Amino acid sequence: MKHLFLGLITFTALVLTGCNNKQTTQNNEENSVSTTTIETAVQKTDFSQLFAHYEQLINALATDSDKDAANAAKGMLVALKDINSTGLTAEQKSMYDDIMPNIQENAEHIADNIGNIAHQREHLIDISTDIYDIAKLFGTSKPYYKVFCPMYNDKKGAFWLSENKEYKNPYMGSRMSSCGEIQEELK
Q1: Other C-beta atoms within 10 Å of 128: how many?
Q2: I want to staple 88 with a disulfide (CB 3.0 to 4.6 A). Which of 36, 93, 101, 147 is the partner?
């Protein structure tokens, strides 16, 4: 009887230990998943592809290529869909939600207007403002320069962001490729 009693105690201890180990393993897996999800969300709030397509847009308009500008705008539209905003704070998310529809609308106009580079350039004004706001709010992975051209838009002027200090003007294209001055460096 004594052996039976000790056997039951040993068996019960083993079962309870196994259950605790299983529970601990499940808790560790759940913590690992939630930590990974948070880290992934933060990592995916990445605007680098959007910036890359914006740079292509700037270069296309600077070389007077309406077709390349349309393709770059299409790339921006794809990049917008790939941005995961779940890692943003409530304030950042609110600002993000205000900016993204504007970029989408203006990128669609640029993409849909092959053959009308003047119209594409008009929409670049708004996209540049929104890209500037993103750079100021969320930072950039590399330096950008805010360049202002006083001659564009009936001498009202307009700005764009350039990844280089040696820029080419996307608003004036080959007519005045060097028109502009750097107003600010964004990091």
Answers
A1: 22
A2: 93
Instruction: Find all residues with CB under 8 Å of 96, minimum gap 6, and list them.
Output: 85, 88, 137
Nearest residue to 160 via CA among 173, 175, 115, 112: 173
Query: How much of the chain is helix, strand and coil, in % rounded to 5?
Result: 65, 10, 25
Q: What are residue 43's phi and psi, to 5 degrees?
A: -65, -35
SS3 for 42-84 is HHHCCCHHHHHHHHHHHHHHHCCCHHHHHHHHHHHHHHHHHCC
Show Cβ contacts of residue 181 under 8 Å, excluding neighbours closer than 6 positions: 147, 148
pTM, to two decimals: 0.76
**pLDDT tens digits, 93-112:** 999 999 999 999 999 999 99
Q: Which two tokens stand for residue 7?
A: 């056997």
What is the identity of the amino acid at 69? Answer: A
Tokens of 159: 């700005």
